[in-house]
Design a protein that fits this description.
- The structure holds 2 protein chains of 2 kinds.
- Chain A has one domain.
- Chain A is 83% helix and 0% strand.
- Chain A has 4 helices and no strands.
- In chain A, helix 2 runs parallel beside helix 4.
- Chain A is elongated, with a radius of gyration of 15 Å.
- Chain B is mainly α.
- Chain B has one domain (22-144).
- Helix content of chain B is 60%, strand content 0%.
- Chain B has helices at residues 25-50, 55-78, 83-105, 126-144.
- In chain B, helix 1 (25-50) packs antiparallel against helix 2, helix 1 runs antiparallel to helix 4 (126-144) and helix 3 (83-105) packs antiparallel against helix 4 (126-144).
- Classes of the chains: A mainly alpha, B mainly alpha.
- The interface between A and B is medium-sized, with 19 and 16 residues.
Chain lengths: 118, 153
């Protein structure tokens, strides 16, 4: 359920950012809010999965799991950060990449630890 | 952060890239940053966990990671005009092509995948496209743009 929220938030932010790129717009507060929200839902997912791990969920690849979670948070935050300081369409494209690539990581997380999302 | 940017066009200011907008360069930096991060993490886990299982593959993973880090730093510091960045991108391209070909020709050498396996198949072939895009962009920038003052290589 939470991963659907993560996918939708990241997907919408990414699509909006791509639209900004095509229209030659730099990131505004709406897009930056989307990037921030993407980062927050990833943090939330990380907290939930960590609690499940501590509760005896036993993920098979713990290092990879937390590595992916950390990478996704870094990417969403970094994308928003660059969108904030690069005032051009290319800043928006970085926001798009920072929001869309974590969706691939999300799918990989489901493969690594299906039990974490059950 | 002050809002007054000095846009001195011809004066011999700093040799660094302008502090204002970097343009498409920022996308390259972000892409190299992502690959630097993920390739370093991947090779670190692989080497730390079971290096002897696939020493060649894991060493090449590490090499790929170091290349991405080097290109990213060169781009951040020198921008698209950086000669060092161009050379490193060439090294990267050769690396992808050689490792990619090796994984196709001699799969037994690679019991486990690297970032550059089968020309970066596991990463949507972005590892193959990235150095080409970067090199083309850098070539176009050097040819077209106003000549920035540069002190030596």
């Amino acid at each position: 359920m939470l991963s659907i929220v993560v996918a939708v938030v990241c997907g919408l932010t990414g699509l909006l950012a791509l639209y900004y790129t095509l229209r030659d717009l730099s990131a505004d507060l709406i897009l930056l809010a989307g990037a921030l929200l993407s980062a927050l839902v990833w943090v939330l997912l990380g907290v939930v999965l960590t609690l499940r791990d501590l509760g005896g969920g036993a993920p098979p690849e713990r290092v990879t799991l937390y590595g992916y979670l950390l990478t996704a948070v870094v990417m969403t935050v970094g994308g928003g950060w660059m969108g904030l300081f690069e005032r051009s369409r290319w800043g928006s494209l970085v926001v798009a990449v920072g929001a869309l690539v974590p969706i691939v990581l999300l799918m990989r997380l489901h493969q690594i630890w299906p039990g974490g999302f059950a | 952060m002050s809002t007054t940017h000095h846009r001195d066009t011809a004066s011999a200011g700093s040799a660094r890239a302008p502090r204002s907008n970097r343009g498409f360069e920022i996308v390259l930096i972000a892409a190299y940053g992502i690959f630097a991060l993920s390739a370093t993490a991947r090779s670190g886990v692989q080497i730390g966990r079971h290096f002897t299982y696939a020493p060649v593959a894991y060493s090449l993973s590490l090499l790929a990671a170091l290349t991405y880090i080097a290109v990213m730093i060169a781009l951040v510091r020198g921008g698209a005009r950086s000669v060092l960045a161009r050379r490193l991108c060439l090294v990267e391209l050769v690396g992808v092509l050689v490792v990619g070909t090796l994984t196709v020709v001699d799969a037994a050498l690679f019991p486990d995948a690297t970032v550059w396996s089968v020309y970066g198949q596991g990463y949507g072939y972005v590892p193959l496209a990235l150095p080409i895009i970067a090199l083309v962009y850098m070539a176009v920038t050097v040819r077209q743009g106003p000549r920035a003052p540069r002190a030596g290589a």
